[in-house]
C-alpha cells in the first residue's frame, strides 16, 4: 500500500505536480461520509430522549438490523440488555445530563439474532449555538477481543492462585511426612514438640523424632539440614530413615552419627553438597527417671532445666557437622533426668531469631537465661513458653524452628 | 536476595590463595564452587581461603568452606582459613569445625606457617 502510494506520487511528480493532493487524498479516505459509515467503530446519534436519529453502516452490520427498523422507532436503550438498560437509565443518562459526556462504559448490545455483543461506549451531548442540548452522539467499540483478553487475565490469575495454593499444600504435606504425626509417649515420661515453619511456600530442613528401641530404651533426635525446599526435604527424609535404621543396628549414639555421616558424605561427594547438624540421644529408664546419652554433630547444645528451675547446657564440644567430611568426630555427653527435670533440644531458628525491634539476634545464652527465669516445669510447659517466645519474635524468626522436650514428671504430680 | 560477591585466586610460593569477598550464601555459593573447580592443587601445596573481605556467610557458605577443605585433602594439599570473623568463628565452633580448619589472622600468616612436611597446620584430623 505504501509503496503503491509512493509510486503514484512519483508518477504525479513527473507529469502533474498539481494533481498530487487530490489523488493521494482519494487513496487515503474517500470522504467524510464514507468514513462515518464504514469507520472501524459504531456511530449512533439519538435525540435527547434516546430515540435513534442516525446510525452508521458498521454498527448496523454488527447488530444485523435494517436502518429503517431503528431510525425514529427505537431508543438506544432498546438495543441494550436488561441490565445494561437499567444501568444506562440510572447512571449514564444522568451523567450525560450533568456533565455532557460519559466514557469508557462497558455494555452489551442485543443483536437482531438475539446474541449479545460486548461493547465499550462513549457518549457526548451536542449542543446548538444557543447552548441547548440537541443530540447525543455515541461511539461504540467492539469489545469482544478485550473481553476475551480480560477473561484470559482472570483465568491466568485464578490459575496462579491455584498453583500457589497447590505449592503451599505440597510444602505442608511434605513437611508433615518429615515429622512424626504424633509424638510417641514414653512410659514414665512426658514428651512435647513444636515445629515452627518460617515459610508457607517452602519445606524447611528441620526434623525430629522419638522412637522405641529394644529393652525399654528409646532413641530420639533433632536436627537441621542445610538449605531449604524439595532437595533439602529429600535429604531430611534420608536422614530420618538412616538414623532410625542405624539406631537399631548399633544403638550407641556416636555410632549412630558415624553411620549417618558415612551415608551423607557419600551424597556430599556425589555432588549434593549438603550437611546436617543433629543431636542424637538414647534414653534408658532407671528408677525415678532416665539416663540419657547425647551425641552431637555440630548442633547447638541441648539444655537441661532441673526441677529447682536452674537451666544449663549439656555441652558436646567439637562434635562436627554431619556429612561434610569423612571420619567426622562426634562428642557424647551423659546426664540423668530425675523427677521434675526437663531436657530440651532446639534448632538454631530459635537462637538466631532477630529479636523484636533490633538487628540483634537471640542466642543460646539468651535462651538459657530465659529458661532459668521462665519457671516452666515439664516438657509441655517448656514447649508452651518457647512457642509463646517464638510467636513474640514474629517475622524475626527467619528460619524453621524445631523444639523437642522430654521430662520426668515431678514427685508432686 | 543475594548481595555482591567476588572470588579471586592468586598463586603464592606455598600454593594458592582463594579470596572470598562480600556475601557468601545460597545465591553466590555456585560462583565460589565454580572457582574451586578451576584450581590446580599439587600434593604438598597449601590452599588458603582468605575471608578478609567476607561480610556474610550462611550454611551454603559453610558448605563451600568444607568443600574447599575436602578438595585440598583430596589433592594431598594443606588447608587453612585466614581472617575468620568473630561471628563466623563462633559458627565454626558450634559446627565443630574449629579443629578441622587451621586458622590464621591473614593469608600471609598462613603461608608463613606452612611447612609441607608438618602435619599440624594442614588441618588433618
UniProtKB/TrEMBL annotation, chain A:
<dbReference type="InterPro" id="IPR035965">
    <property type="entry name" value="PAS-like_dom_sf"/>
</dbReference>
<dbReference type="GO" id="GO:0016301">
    <property type="term" value="F:kinase activity"/>
</dbReference>
<dbReference type="Pfam" id="PF13426">
    <property type="entry name" value="PAS_9"/>
</dbReference>
<feature type="coiled-coil region">
    <location>
        <begin position="146"/>
        <end position="177"/>
    </location>
</feature>
<dbReference type="InterPro" id="IPR052016">
    <property type="entry name" value="Bact_Sigma-Reg"/>
</dbReference>
<protein>
    <submittedName>
        <fullName>Histidine kinase</fullName>
    </submittedName>
</protein>
<dbReference type="InterPro" id="IPR001932">
    <property type="entry name" value="PPM-type_phosphatase-like_dom"/>
</dbReference>
<dbReference type="InterPro" id="IPR036457">
    <property type="entry name" value="PPM-type-like_dom_sf"/>
</dbReference>
<feature type="domain" description="PAS">
    <location>
        <begin position="28"/>
        <end position="80"/>
    </location>
</feature>
<keyword id="KW-0175">Coiled coil</keyword>
<dbReference type="Pfam" id="PF07228">
    <property type="entry name" value="SpoIIE"/>
</dbReference>
<keyword id="KW-0378">Hydrolase</keyword>
<keyword id="KW-0808">Transferase</keyword>
<dbReference type="InterPro" id="IPR000014">
    <property type="entry name" value="PAS"/>
</dbReference>
<keyword id="KW-0418">Kinase</keyword>
Automatic annotation (TrEMBL), chain B:
<dbReference type="InterPro" id="IPR003658">
    <property type="entry name" value="Anti-sigma_ant"/>
</dbReference>
<comment type="similarity">
    <text>Belongs to the anti-sigma-factor antagonist family.</text>
</comment>
<feature type="domain" description="STAS">
    <location>
        <begin position="5"/>
        <end position="114"/>
    </location>
</feature>
<dbReference type="InterPro" id="IPR036513">
    <property type="entry name" value="STAS_dom_sf"/>
</dbReference>
<dbReference type="Pfam" id="PF01740">
    <property type="entry name" value="STAS"/>
</dbReference>
<protein>
    <recommendedName>
        <fullName>Anti-sigma factor antagonist</fullName>
    </recommendedName>
</protein>
<dbReference type="InterPro" id="IPR002645">
    <property type="entry name" value="STAS_dom"/>
</dbReference>
